[in-house]
């Protein structure tokens, strides 16, 4: 199948891109890496009147550290961030997750913010953003606003971005640089995760645990360190609460069972790294 006809705009600035979004609203789609959007166009899941291509905007092609966060611009590809020399020291949880994102070829095109915008509940980057308590920066002609990851993703491929807003950056907090772990289960390496679990030691007493692929969005739990001895019980309870869902890749029952098995392993690994 081929996409329906659409107009193509390649703006020279983020300001121009925002102006096009203000004009077209819901009828516009933003193109950065296109690794998800192009498939949706071909399947006619998405039928925009205009594509707004921001991939070549230099002002959105940056990685910088400020105020205890790593800010990643909307034109930064997944491989750019993966190969950033400071990634392992500043964001070890993201460094552990990025090799699971697609394949080398798709990471060369796919963008970090594009993955966050797509909001697939099995996607690794939105999971890490949620687990770390990150933020999404949105710009429109009405101004700029910053949303917590927990407020940005609202469901399966559903976000709080307004039709006239452009995601210009994502911010990942850097305070968790020790005691992190990430694991996922997929049918093949590079596929979207059936389930994924991220953990980081928040302080001497608390763990942050992120779960992807089980609910309709990343789920984040805070748990006392003492829970490590009872991690199986904790993940049994989480599996029941999150319920899971059926799709072509796995049943809800399988997702719950995998969470019970993988979760305690990730918690143990994070605590061992923090010791």
- Broad CATH class of the largest domain: Alpha Beta
Shape: globular
| Spatial strand order of the main sheet | 4-5-10-6-7
Helix-strand topology string: EHEHEEEHHHHHHEEHEEEEEEEHH
What would you call the structural class? alpha+beta
Terminal CA distance:
54 Å
Report on this model:
The model has no long low-confidence stretch (mean pLDDT 93). The protein is of the alpha+beta class. It has eleven helices and 14 strands. Helices cover 33% and strands 26% of the residues. The relative contact order is 0.12. The chain is globular and about 55 Å long.
Give the tags.
Enolase-like, domain 1; Uridine Diphospho-n-acetylenolpyruvylglucosamine Reductase, domain 2; 14 strands; alpha+beta; Uridine Diphospho-n-acetylenolpyruvylglucosamine Reductase, domain 3; 3 domains; 4-stranded antiparallel β-sheet; 275 residues; 5-stranded antiparallel β-sheet
